[in-house]
Amino acid sequence: SGRGRAGAGAAMSVFVTRRIPAEGLRVLSQASGCRVQLWDSEEPVPRAELLAGVAGKRGLLCLLSDRIDREVLEAAGPGLKVISTMSVGFDHLALDEIKKRGIRVGYTPDVLTDATAELSVALLLSACRRLTEAVEQVKNGGWTTWKPLWMCGYGLSDSTVGIIGLGRIGQAVARRLKPFGVKKFLYTGSRPRPESAAEFEAEFVPLTKLAEESDFVVVTCALTPATKGMCNKDFFSRMKKTSVFVNTSRGAVVNQEDLYDALAHGQIAAAGLDVTTPEPLPTDHPLLSLKNCVILPHVGSATYATRSTMAVLAANNLLAGLQGDPMPHELVL
């Protein structure tokens, strides 16, 4: 502590791009010498306000909806030392530019894994058992009597599940789906992960084989140049007519026009999306006109406990970075 620490404290000015859970803000406000400027709104910070807000700051706490590109970094100036994002994904950060400037980056993996996996399973079940469609039928008088084939969908028992990206969330999804009686797990990614796959006896296969053999496809990979638009016309055309597609990663992994065509023409049975491009999806988007597509507003990590934990971790990452200490969760660039 002493004079040196106080000096470091004086330089701890940070910009927070949104009203985050109170527990996270509390961590920052209680840190000695930390001066917080907050965009105090539920809505995203306008671009002009973001550029003004980061100017001269040492630290930035942002969300996945904030595009932190070269323009933002230049507006911040050379004093910016730490960026902490309240997300596990970092495709909104211009990492090459950030690395070039020697800025440290914190993120929040692990803490949202369970909530996101849980939501992925909910979305899968909702799509394959036609829950939103069924609820609508009850409301609009479509429910007349019990009918043997009415509202039938597809179950998980004896099925093959393909997971695109067997990382933390992909494994957590597989762990939850296994007790449903899934017969076989397939996975694909940049490389085999035998230590992760062992628990589910999951088989590493090319993307094309995963598409052809899976009854359910769950996308839980990161958005990178390699995964952008990966689920496209070719991919959907290889899937079974009875298969269900679920994406809880990032919208841009999917070619939405191709997905629309596949769903509209019965090329695949159903889809469940927690992520789209853009977000929010325009209310007149063609996908929203389909009965066999369930779309949620990016709520994968949305439990009270998880969001609170994410905010605290993001705040602690930021403080550690500002003090030159190891971060609880640093993204190694």
Record keyword descriptors for this entry.
about 325 residues; alpha/beta; Rossmann fold; 2 domains; six-stranded mixed β-sheet; 13 helices; about 15% strand; D-isomer_2_OHA_DH_cat_dom; oxidoreductase; NAD binding; glyoxylate reductase (NADPH) activity; NAD(P)-bd_dom_sf
Structural commentary:
The protein has 333 residues and is an alpha/beta fold. The protein folds into two domains: 12-110 and 304-331, NAD(P)-binding Rossmann-like Domain (Rossmann fold); 112-295, 3-Layer(aba) Sandwich (Rossmann fold). It contains 13 helices and 13 strands. The strands form two sheets. A seven-stranded parallel sheet has the order 8-7-6-9-10-11-12, sandwiched between helices. The chain is elongated. The protein starts with a helix and ends with a strand. The model is unreliable at 1-10 (pLDDT under 50). Residues 121-300 form the D-isomer specific 2-hydroxyacid dehydrogenase NAD-binding domain. GO terms for molecular function: glyoxylate reductase (NADPH) activity; hydroxypyruvate reductase (NADH) activity; NAD binding. This is Glyoxylate reductase/hydroxypyruvate reductase. Keywords: Oxidoreductase.
